[in-house]
Amino acid sequence: MEQLLNIPAILAIAFAGSILVFVTHLVLPRLRTAVVLLLTLVPAYLVWQLPVDSPMVYFSLGGFDLSWGTNPYSRLFSLLIAGIGVLSTIYSLAFMKNKARLGFFYLAFLATIAAMYGIVFSQDLLSLFFFWEIMTWSSFLLVIYYRFENQQAGIRYFVFSAVGAYALLTAIVYLYSFTGDLSLAATFRVIPQLSTTQLSWITVLFLLGFGVKSALMPMHVWAPDAYRSAPSPFTALFSGVLSKMGVFGMGLVLFKFMGGLEPGHIIREVLAWMGGITALLGTFYAVFQTDAKKLLAYSSIAQLGYIIVGLAIGTPMSVMAAIFLALMHGIFKSMLFMGVGSVFHQTGSLDLNELTGLIRRMPLSFVTVLMGIITVAGVPPLGGFVGKWLLYESLITSNHYFLVIVLFTSSTAAFLYLYRLIFSIFLGQEEREFDHIKEVSWVMWVPMLILAGMTLVTGILPGIFFGPIAEAMQYLGFPQIDWQMSVLFNPWGNQVDMLSVITSIATVFLLGLAFITWKNFRTTRYVTTKDIHTSGEMPTENENLTYAIDFYRPFERAAAPIFKYKVTRMYASFAENAEHLFDLLRHVYTGNAQTYALYVVIFLVILIVFSGWIFGIQI
Amino acid sequence: MSFDWIKLLGFIVTPLIASAVGFTYMGLSRKITARVQNRIGPGISQSFIDVVKLYSKKTAINHGLMQHMGPVFAITASITTLLFLPVIKDSIFFANFSFRGDLIFLIYIMVFGQLGMALGAGQTGNPNSAIGVSRGLSQMVGFKVPYVMALVAIMIHAKSTNLQEIIAVQDGFRNWMVFQMPLASLAGLLAYLGYMGYAPFDVPFAPAELASGPPSEFGGKYLALMMTSRSIFTFAKLVLFVDVFFGGASNFIELLIKTFLLYLFALFVGLVNPRFRTEQSIQFWWKWPTAIGALALLLVAWKG
C-alpha cells in the first residue's frame, strides 16, 4: 500500500478502473458490482491516506512541464470527492440494477470521479484544463444516458461547458504568454507584475470558465435540465461535487491568483451581486417547479449563489462560510437527490402533482429528505445553519447591507419550495395507487442516512470542518484563523454556542416526545388520512382531497408584478431566447469536421495576426 | 462550567411564567375583542380552563408519526427561543442562554417550530391544513423582508448582533430604538403584525374559511401541547420585540406593561381591519414597510 500512496498511482488506478469496469461488464457481468466497489473504494482510501504535504510530482509531456501535488486546499476538496463519490457509487449499485448499458454508465461515472481527483491535484494549468475537459466529457455522457429525450439537455450542457472551457483556455494561454511556464507556482510569481487591466481580464475569463460549472446566473441555463436528465446517483455527484469544482477554481482564482484583488474591488462586488441574484432568482424559480429534480436543480443553483457570494466578498469569515457551505451543499444536495431518486426508483414518478402520502411507505427516505430540507433551510441545529450564520454575519460586519437582505429573502422563500418538496411527496393524502410501494433496499438507504447523520454532526461540532478549512485558507493566503469546535463567533465578538443550542433543543424535544407518547398511550389511535375533519361530510374512498396543484398560487400572484409578467410566460420567452441562441450556435457547430478544422485555422490566424495587440508580445 | 442550581431553576421557571403570561394575554384578548364587539365575552381565565380540559382528555387520534411529533417540534422551538432571549435586563435568573445566541440565531430558531407544525399539519391529509400552510409560508416571505431590514439596520447601528448588547445601547427612555431609529422600528413593527398573525394578516388560520387551517386535525393532548407552545411563543415574540425596539425591561412589572401594550397594538389593529388575501398582505409588506426599511438601511449605511 505504501508505494501506492502517490498521486500518479491514484489517478492511474482511478482512470484504469473506469476502463476496467467497462471491460468487466463486457466479459464478466457478474463481477461488475464487486469491481465497481473495489475501484471506487481503493482510490478513495488512498486519497484519504494521502499526506497533505506529499511530494510534488513533475514530468514532461509534449514540451510542457506538468506537476501534481497536494495542499490543504486540494485535500479538502479531494475528501469531498472521495466521500460523496463512494456514497453515490454505493447508492448507484442498487439504483442502476437491471438497467441497460451499465458498463457505459460506470465507465463515465468512475471517469468523472477520477477526473475530479485530477483537477484538485493539478499543480499546473495544463493538467487542470486537461482533467477539466475529461470531467466535462464524462459527465456529458451521463447527462445523455437516457438517450433521446435528453438530447436537448445534453447539448445545452455541452455548449455551455464548451464556452466555459474556451474561456478557461483563453485565460490560460493569455497567462502563458507572460509566464512561459504553466505551473501554478510560476503563475503566482508572475501575477504581481501584471497590470490591473491584464489581471482583470484574466480574472473575468477564469470566472467565466469556472462560473459555468457552478451554474452562476446567467450561465445557469444548462443546469436544470442536465440535473433533471442524469440518472439520480449521478445527479447527486453532479450537483453535490462536480459543481464544487467551479467553486474550487473560483477560490484559486480569487485568492491565489488575484491576491491583488483586495476586498471591495469592483470585480468582487459584481461577482457577489451576481451570486446574490443567482440565489434569489434560483429560489423563486424553484418555488414554481412541479418536478422534484428540477426543483432541486434550481435550489442547487441558488445555493451555489450563496457560496459565490461568500467567496466574492473575500473576508476571512465569508470565505470560511463559503467553503463550509460548499462542503455542506455537497452533503445535503447529494442526499436530497438520493432521497428523491429513491422515490423515483420506487414509484417511477418525479411529479409533485402526482406523488402523495409516501411517508408511511418510505419512512427512511422521508427522514433523509426531512434532514435535507432542514439543512437547506438553515434551521438550527443542523449544519446548514452554521454556514448561513457565518455568511450573514460576515456580510453584516463587512457592510454589505443590501446583499444580506437579498440572501435573507432568498432563504425565506426557500422554505416554500422545501415544504412543497416534502409535502407533495411524503405528506398529504395517502392514495391507494401507492399502497404497494416499499422502502428502497439498504444499499440505497445506508448512504442516505450516513449523509443525514453528517448534517447533524456538522451542526453540533462544526469544528470538524473548520479545522481543515482554516488550513486550506492559510494556503489561499489568509492569516491564521481562530475557530472553535462548537462555538461560532463574528468579528464583533458575538457568538452562538452550538452545544447550548443542541442541549436546549434535545432536552425539550425528548421530554416533549416522551410526554406526548406516554400520555394516553393506550387510547391514542391511528386513523387514515380519509378520516378527517370535513365539517360533517364523510369523504368517500375516491374523493380527491389532495392539495398539490398550484400549491403557491397566492404567492405567484403576489410575486407576479415583480417578475413583470406571469412566471410561466417568462419561462417560455426565456426558453425561446435560449433556443434562438442555440439555433445560432448550430450554424457554428455544423457537425462537419471540415468546418471545425477551418475554425481552428481561422483562430490560429487571428492569434498570429493580432498577437501583438491581444497579448502585448511580439512573435 | 460549574453547576448552578439557580440557573437550572431559571430554565424551568422561565417557560412556566411565559406560558402563564401568554395564556393570560390570550384570555384578555378574547375579553377585549368581545368588549369591542359589544359582547360580554368569556372570563379571562378561559384559556387556562381550555388547556386544562384538553390536557385531561382521555383519548387522542393522529394520522401518523409526523403529526404525532409536530407539536413537540413546536414546543421545542418555543422554549428554545425563550431560553435564548434576555427576558429581563441584567437578571441572572432569567438570563438562561441569552449570552450564547444572537439575533440571527433567534430568527432561524423561530422558524423551527413553524416548520415542524407545517410538517405535522401536512401529514393529516386535510386540504385545509395544506392550504393554511401554503398561505402561512407565503406570508412569511412577505413580512420577513421588512423585518430583516429593520433588524439588520439595528444590528449595524448597535455594532452587535447580541440582544444583551442591543439592549445595552438603549439605556434610558430617550435611547429606545424606536426613538434612535424610527424608520427601522416602523418597518419592524409593521412586520411584527405579520408575526403575531392577527387580522388583517390572519388568512393562514382563517377560522370561518379554513376551519383554523393547520391545527384543524389536532385534538386532545396534541392541541393542548400546541396551545402551550403558542402561549410561550407569543410571550417570546413580545419579549423579542420589546428587547429590540423598546429597550428591554429591568423588572417584571415593566416587562408586563411593555409586552401587554405591544400585544394590544397587534390586537387593536386586528379588531378594526378586515382580512387581507394572501397576495394582498405580501404586496402590502413589499411596498411601504420594505421601502421604509430600505431607507433605514440607507441611512445607517450613510452614517456608518
Describe the structure in your own words.
The complex is a heterodimer of chains A (619) and B (304). Chain A starts with 6 loop residues before the first helix and ends with a helix. Chain A has 22 helices and 5 strands. In chain A, helix 3 (72-95) crosses helix 18 (463-475) and helix 4 packs antiparallel against helix 5. Chain A has helices at residues 7-27, 32-49, 72-95, 102-121, 125-143, 151-179, 184-190, 196-213, 223-229, 232-257, 266-287, 292-313, 316-347, 363-377, 383-397, 401-426, 442-460, 463-475, 498-518, 553-559, 567-588, 593-615, and strands spanning 57-61, 64-68, 487-489, 495-497, 524-526. Chain B has one domain (5-303). Chain B starts with a helix and ends with a helix. Chains A and B meet through helix 14, helix 15, helix 16, strand 4 and helix 19 of A and strand 1, helix 3, helix 4, helix 5 and helix 10 of B.
Structural class by secondary-structure content of chain B = mainly alpha
Question: What is the helix content of chain B?
Answer: over 70%
Q: Which parts of chain B are unreliable, with pLDDT below 50 for 5 consecutive residues or more?
A: none
Helix percent of chain A reads 55-70%
Strand content of chain B: under 5%
Q: What is the radius of gyration of chain B computed over CA atoms, rounded to a whole number of angstroms?
A: 19 Å
Report the radius of gyration of chain A as a whole number of Å: 25 Å
Largest sheet of chain B: none
Low confidence ranges of chain A: none
Structurally, the number of domains of chain B stands at 1
Q: Given the C-alpha coordinates, what overall shape of chain A results? A: globular
